[in-house]
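Support case: zinc ion complex. Customer-provided input:
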Amino acid sequence: MFQVSCAACNASFEYNVDDYIHLCPYCSTGFILDLEEGAKDIIGDHFIVPNRMDREQVEGIFYDWITERYHRPDKVKQEFKILGSYGISLPHWVISVEAHTFWSGHSQKLNQYSGQGSEYGSKFLKEESRFSRRYRWSILARKSPKEHWGLERLHRPKEQLMVDWDGYPLDETLGLIKGATVTTIYDARQAFKFDHANGLSIAGVQVKESSAIARAKDQIQEYHRRIAKTKVGTLYEHRTEIEVVGIHLVHLPFWVVRYSFAPQSPFRFMTTARERRILIQGHTLAVLEAELPLSSSDKVMTNMVVCGGLAVASLALALFFHPLFFLMVMVFSGVCVLSAWKIFGREKVDTDLGRGADLSEPVF
Ligand SMILES: [Zn+2]
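Agent response - structure generated as follows:
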């Protein structure tokens, strides 16, 4: 470990060589150290959203959440147990942007008027339009989004499209604050102080703002391209101009909770894993991501196994008793094949998770 003295209060502390910004544990000042010159550059615009959760609350939030979703609320306390939990305050670059998109393409005409069907061109409708959005796009300032469970794909757009990026619009993703004077998580930020983590450890800042901006721009480009594609049959052209209005460093609290699920019904032979996790926002207390106790594929799996068994039994009956049972073999194996097809073709998205209200506003 290496020692550095704080750029503001001069106290010396050990620093991590992976960090891009060093945070003084005594006065909470953040600064960038130029290792060759020894120069220290104090950063401004560093905020923290206070952690509002402790270990005792984890249980209440978890049981409220699972009781709403589990088909036997009375059994929840017996079948679900919390195995462990931890909270951490993670740095994010929050980039305020305005994104303006122009797109053009064509769609097939739905209504054909008589006499128009013969001409090729008239079957298609050329369409073009533009739209604009404003975001506070949030990029994790750690080298890997896999470091803590659940942070990889937090963005759940209201449009029906696939997401394969890790950034997200801050307020609509992390939930709203109930019963407080400020409702969005961004408005709950305060000047950075270690004390506001309220007992959580503070993760260091490893990512430069320039690379965070580049990643945010890429992600918004791609997001808007996919939005444009939902509006038209074939997308010809797409241009998104992104204007960066501001960038802030914000530490945000998250809690990872591990729980076990031991059903008392015969389902226990069918579940795929014993230990599951949920991710809770430490300020809004919203459940952001979760491994559900019985995912739909568990149920379909049960279906597949049961129908497979029935198909085999019917086959035996058909061979030794009456050929009419072949009909049942066909029905059961049909259901079995359909179930298998559903498991392997499913999308790995829980549409069950609710988030905060839609806060993105159109620019015009
Ligand atoms: Zn200091």
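The first helix runs from residue 55 to 69.

Case will auto-close in a few days if no follow-up is received.
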